[in-house]
Amino acid sequence: MKDNNDVYHQELIDTILKQFYRVYHDSGYGFLERVYQNTLYFALLDEGLKCEVENRYKSIMMDT
To answer: In the chain, what are the domain boundaries?
Structure first.
């Protein structure tokens, strides 16, 4: 049985994928990655999602 968190995540994934395919379909193929990246960014903002483009973060590698 799915809880509310699972439903929220599935709706979020569906929205992101829907916008990805819309951007690719509307733009066509052959552009640089940056063109698709910027177009998808604004499409996600239009859907009301908070997002950032290539946000930098620190990562630490740990020995196992």
So the answer is: 4-46
